[in-house]
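Notes taken during the Thursday session

The instructor put the following on the board and asked us to keep it in front of us for the whole hour. The protein is Lipoprotein-releasing ABC transporter permease subunit. We were told not to look anything up and to reason only from what is written here. First, the residues (436 in total):
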Amino acid sequence: MIHFTRFFARFGAAAAEGSGAAPFGAYERMLALRYMRSRRNRWLPSAIAGLSVTGITVGVMSLIVVMSVMNGMRDEMISKLIGVNGHIFIQPIDTPLTDYREVTAQLRKIPGITFAFPMVENAAGISSPQQQTGALVRGVTEADLKRLPGIVGNVRQGTLDHFDDKVGVVIGEKLAETLGVQVGDKVSILTAKGAQTPFGVTPRLKAYPVKAIYQSGLYDFDQLIVFMPLAEAQAFFNRPDEANIIEGFVAHPDKVDAVRERIVQAITRPIMLTDWRQRYKSFFDVLKVESDSIFLILAIIVAVASLLIVQGLILLVKDKGRDIAILRTMGATRGSILRVFILTGLSIGATGAILGTALGVPLALQLENIRTFVNRTFNLNLFPADIYHLSQLPSSLDLHEVGGIAVLTLCLSFLATLYPSWRAARLDPVEALRHE
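Then, after some discussion, the predicted structure tokens were revealed:
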């Protein structure tokens, strides 16, 4: 009793100065800090404060980690998709693309285009003595294949040298596993658009040796795409001296609109022009919806944790009713009491935000190493490539997003303090002391 009397005498004097005591001054901050601490140990938080901080910490940490994974997945998908595929796609209208050399030369001269190449692209069947499956065959020259960002540096077996001279194919690592083949083995490619006979078009089947095996990092591409020399693809698919698509790469894929305008002005023949955003729009729309939905769900977790602040402050107001009444009789204003409990709630929210950020940031940065360690230690297969279409768990930390999560947490914490703080400020000191 003597201890509390001295405490309130000390800080009640500051409150009694009225306008001389600055809002959120020293005594208000000390009271807020005192109300967060345990009664038995001044270095430990109270049970309610501890639960609130824990809930907010887990929510903030989860938000940072999951949003980093979603950002990393989007960045990884874009880099892989536009590493094997181009950024812009030109297809012929009305007439076949027999002038692909001239169109490609015009495209390469356009400012902003870093690389362009013609291609024959056709769906086909591919088989080995062990297995058969579908494939997307792309006919390209050796020089162009060696410049593809998703292929150069990613050849795991064999070589791309003499790709044009020695007729063979380059396949993805997953497709090689499916077919059970290695470099040097032969695979058979089947197309329905074969030779023209008096009885109609007959299917064409031809065996090719595997010259190289690549790993782009994107499961679908490694399972699907087969590269064939351009001249051989033209002959195999009955497209003599013709391409059916020209792909181009730009310096800045996110700013492809400016390049599109230059292409429309530079290419005179009728073409259909699309870019990577249009080709994969549905895919990235789904990814964005998933990202927004996960953010909303995890933000609700933070909001629920903020409700613990409401509950904790209401219990604190009931427990400290006598203390509030003594402060009021010593001159503390309602505004001062209001600010004390707002500071208490904000301190809990800020502590949870800081701890959640301190735990979430390093966890997001080391997520792939953690996944590898858990898989190796417990013989698990977390984040399987055949389901998520990526060979590793991506994580891209956005500091602006981390800051936004912290601000969101503080805003929710502030809103959670308003009602309990208002109740504390409205407490009648006479009624509070009457029941003591």
